[in-house]
Amino acid sequence: MPRERTYLRYQVYRSEARKRAASQIGGLQGQLKAADASIMDLSLIRFEPINRHALNAFETWEEPCFFWQEVIAWKSREPRALDISIWFDGQLCGLCFANPNNRRRRLRVVRLEGRPGGTHPLKNRIGLLAMMVIEQYAHFVGCDVIEIQEPLDGAIPVYQKLGFSFDIEGRLVKTLENPVL
After folding, report:
1. Does residue 126 contact residue 135 with C-beta atoms inside 8 Å?
2. Which residues make Cβ contacts (< 8 Å) with residue 65, sequence separation at least 6?
3. pLDDT tens-digit profile of 100-131?
4. In the chain, what's the furthest Cα-to-Cα distance?
5. 73, 75, 92, 99: which is deepest, by most CB within 10 A?
C-alpha cells in the first residue's frame, strides 16, 4: 500500500506544478495588458496531462518530430514522470514528457515539441511555457538539475536562451538554484 501513496504524491505534484505555472501566467496577464492592450489573452493557455484528448489533437499535426502515442505506456511504467500538453483555447500547441532519475537529483526532459508547420498562437513560446511547469515539478521532487535528453540540433539555441548550457560531460543542463515555489 505505501507504493500507491507514493504514486499519488507524484500525481499531486504534477497537478500542482501545472496549476502554479498557470497561476504565474495569470499574474503576467495584467502586467502585459498594462503595457500593451493588444496582447493575447493569456488566460486561454492551459497545461493538462497528455491524455487521449491530447493525442487525438496531436494526430492533426503535420510532420511532427516525435511519435507521442507511446507516452501513455511510459506514464504507466514511470509514475514519477511529468507529462504536459500545452493548449491555447481549444488548440493543442505543445507536448512534453520528463522523468526524474532514480535518485531524483536530475529531471530529464525526454521529449518537448511545439506544433510543427504553419503557425499557432504559442509559436516560439512552447519551450518557455513547458519550463515553467518543469521547474515547478523539479522543485517538488527535489531535483536541482534539468537535463535535455538528446536535444535536436535546431533546438539547442532555444534551450540556451532558456538558460541551458553544456556541462563537462556534454549534457545540455540547467541548474536550479532559486526555488520558484
Report:
1. no
2. 113, 116, 152
3. 986 768 999 999 999 998 788 888 889 999 99
4. 53
5. 92
Contact 151, 159 (CB under 8 A): yes
> Sign of the CA dihedral 112, 94, 97, 134?
positive
pLDDT, position 26: 79
Question: What pLDDT is stored for residue 111 in this prediction?
Answer: 95
C-alpha cell recorded at residue 61: 499535426
pLDDT, averaged across the chain: 87
Domain architecture of the chain: domains with CATH:
2-175 (3.40.630.30)
Cell representation of residue 117: 508547420
Secondary structure (H, E, C), the chain: CHHHHHHHHHHHHHHHHHHHHHHHHHHHHHHHHHHCCCCCCHHHEEEECCCHHHHHHHCCCCCCCCCCCCHHHHHHHCCCCEEEEEEECCEEEEEEEEEECCCCCEEEEEEEEECCCCCCCCCCCHHHHHHHHHHHHHHHHCCCEEEECCCCHHHHHHHHHCCCEECCCCCEEEECCCCCC
For residue 24, give the C-alpha cell. 504565474
Summarised one tens digit per residue, pLDDT across range 38-94 is 567 888 899 999 999 999 999 999 888 898 988 888 888 888 999 999 999 999 999
